[in-house]
Amino acid sequence: MGVVLLGRSRGGALVAIKLIRAEYAGDASFRTRFRREVAIARRVVNRYAVPVVDADTEAASPWLATEFVPGPALADAVAATGPLPAPALRALGAMLAEALDAVHRAGMVHRDVKPGNVLLAPDGPRLIDFGIARALDDTVLTATDMVVGSPGFLSPEQATGAPVGPPSDVFSLGCVLVHAATGQRPFGSGPVEAMLFRTVHDEPALDGVPGELLPLVRACLDKDPARRPDAAALRAAWAADTADGGWLPASVSHLIAERSARMLALPDIEATWVPPPAPDGATATAAPHPEPPRRRRMLAWIGSGAAVLATGGTTAWLIGRDRRDGGTDGAGPAARPVVRLGLQADLSGPGRAAGTAHERGMRLAVEEHNARADEPFTLALTVADDRGDPGAARGAAARLAADERVVAVVGATGVEAAGAVLGAYDEAALTLLSALDGDTRHMNRVFLCARPSNAMQMYPVAQYLGLHGLDDIAVVDDESEYGRQTTRFLAEGLRGTGGRTVLAHTVPEGTGAAGLDARARALVAARPGAVVHGGGARSAADFARALDRAGYRGPRIAGQAAHEQGFLASAGAAADGWLVVSTATDPLAAPAARAFTRAFRTRWDGAAPPPFAAEAYDTVRLVASCVRELGRERVTRGDLVPVLRKTRYEGVSRTYAFEPENGAFVGTGTFFYRVTGGAFRFLGPDPKAV
Q1: Could you list the residue ranges that cross the membrane (predicted)?
Q2: In a 10 Å sphere around its CB, with 0-12 CB exposed, 13-18 middle and 19+ buried, how is residue 122 labelled?
């Protein structure tokens, strides 16, 4: 939603300033949420909760300043020095419980208690980031298309979309203490859907938690919110350990002292002022720089907790130096450092529609970026056509990997091609982002799925079924890998957390008409409340026709594989009325993509942006935002993945965010469509509006 700035008052006090981008500030509903956030934060007064120092919610670019804590986050301290000993754990638990008690007494829930939101100081921890905290009675402003919280540390209530209260924060506190004691999450890691499932159904792994802490930690992690202790009880139970110096091991105290010393050595403000980059909004032209907050002078631009400071007489970006890169593909001035991206796409095979959409969206983003004179670097694009063929894909990947100037690749636009190239990009340590491929098997150290995975795209389907009180859900699997990934998670969730009956059916792709009719009649005879088909477009179309012949007229739902013209053409009239869930937005209908749509039409001779053009456009801007955050004259391949995994970016198509440990997508971006008159009609992301 903006940038975080390190600021210093005239009296020398350091503060962290959240400066909101102007385009968000112009949204009345967002300004209402920000106003609410500030009001909530002001209500929490506790020595272990970071206080609000100042704010202006009505400014053209609203801002919020809080006390700056120079110490490391708990997550960083555990990663650098190892798990905490038992006395430090008890003290940590007591002090965080005290902070949460203050939060809950203020009538709110934090909702994102995790090691990254706990900063360590000599006199105790500090709980930060009330950015998604909301008053208990606030139902109007709560998001409906996302799981609020961080997988691995959120509660079962959050994982299932149920109402949350103070016990949810207590569960998260238990997860934080397990991490601090063991260096691991109590419900493991891996794909987001797997962590959510284990959080709801499995017992926590508590090996390594000191015996004296086990009873209370286990009580915090009880699946039933009513059986968990409250924050006040936890504070009382662990109150014997105080923060009167020495509460942390020497290795962590040294880390805190080291970071604090950096703050004492800061140069004068005038020598370190680095202007923040132009707001990265959804318009085709650069927005003006926001004015600095009143009564504050900005010291440096920081992102993801790392200050970009000028030290030793050198600024982070050597903007004045010429940098030649052997040409920029006509992408813009060559006098700036060049960041080259690659696109691997099917531009001439069966998936050329998606490949062409990717190429046009990316070229538009590159051209817009390079047209801004205040950008500190130039973008360039290298395109490799893989024809949608695994063999050709390996050749395309080899060419891009061999070009050392390419620091990240977007693609591939075919699922089989994507699986064929992972090894080559992994070996080259070359970041690969995909806005199209959601196969959970493809996760590795360089792959980032920039969309909800195949399984997680079904999460809003489960919400929709629950909101409409539908039971006896027929879940149809076509025995493809895609079908397995979508139907298994949905069926487990419906049975386990929704308490609903699942009528599982396997209808292999390629089943003949007679077999399809027999299976459709058997399914209809069971009188399902809804039918969900989790397979490919062809099998979904075949089954849609069979259901139509069997006379079924109830709710019919298909996954993203059916969001293509082939489904409509093959199913014909039988497709009408189907609800299709997809991770591709409709730029013609989505309000956030209006400026993008205008720019796309202007650039591409009036053509409307096709599916996945906006998502490809976003990937370029996402990478560019991370390059800015790095603040380096030269960016290498190994630089990007760590920053991407810690970045939250608001694109024109969705919110992009990733799990730092494994790169799994934890942002938003699943949309509903209704087939009407042989076309997909965009309904938006909210299952309540469907």
Answers
A1: none
A2: middle
Q: Please give the order of strands across the beta sheet that includes 2-8.
A: 52-56, 63-67, 14-20, 2-8, 297-303, 306-308
Confidence at 130, pLDDT banded by 50, 70, 90 = low
Q: Total structural domains in the chain? A: 4
CA-based nearest residue to 556, from 539, 570, 540, 572 = 540
d(CA 282, CA 433): 20
Q: Which helix (H) or strand (E) holds 656?
A: strand 655-657
Of 77, 119, 478, nearest to 250 (Cα)?
77
> Whole-angstrom Cα distance, residue 379 to residue 394?
25
Catalytic residue flag (residue 112): yes
| 436 and 562 assigned to the same domain | no
- Backbone torsions φ then ψ of 337, nearest 5 degrees: -55, 145
Distance CA 634, CA 639 (A): 10
Instruction: Report pTM.
Output: 0.58
313 C-beta neighbours (distance < 10 Å), count: 7
> Which residue range is the domain that position 437 belongs to?
338-452+593-655
Same domain, 134 and 232: yes
Identify whether residues 472 and 557 lie together within a single domain: yes
Q: Residue 622: inside a domain, yes or no?
A: yes
Which 8-state DSSP code applies to residue 19?
Answer: E
**Contact (Cβ atoms closer than 8 angstroms) between residue 222 and residue 228:** yes
Which DSSP symbol is given to 83? Answer: P
Q: What is the pLDDT of residues 306-344, one digit of tens each?
A: 332 222 222 222 222 223 333 335 444 447 899 999 999
Q: Residues 484, 555: one domain?
A: yes
Whether residue 7 sits in one domain with residue 118: no
Q: What is the β-pairing status of strands 124-127 and 134-135?
A: unpaired
Nearest-angstrom CA–CA distance, 113 and 96: 10
Cα 283 to chain centroid, rounded: 22
Q: Provide the CATH number for the domain around residue 565.
A: 3.40.50.2300
Query: What is the maximum alpha-carbon separation in the chain?
Result: 82
Indicate which residue of 112, 439, 542, 618 is catalytic: 112
Q: State pLDDT tens for residues 476-490.
A: 999 898 998 899 888
Q: In degrees, to the nearest 5, what angle opens at C-alpha 391 toward C-alphas 420 and 352?
A: 85
In the numeric block, which tokens belong to residue 416? 């089989």
Place of tokens 């995790």: 114
The total number of residues written for the chain in this structure: 690
User: What is the C-alpha separation between 31 and 26, in angstroms, rounded?
Assistant: 7
Q: Are 446 and 298 members of one domain?
A: no
Looking up tokens 């924060």 gives 169
pLDDT at 349: 93
Q: What is the CATH number of the domain that holds 23?
A: 3.30.200
CB 573: neighbour CB atoms within 10 A?
Answer: 12
Q: Concatenate the DSSP letters of all residues of 225-249 into one string.
A: GGGSPPHHHHHHHTTTS--SS--S-
Q: How far is CA 26 from CA 22, 30, 57, 60, 61, in A?
A: 6, 8, 12, 8, 9
Q: Are residues 99 and 246 in the same domain?
A: yes
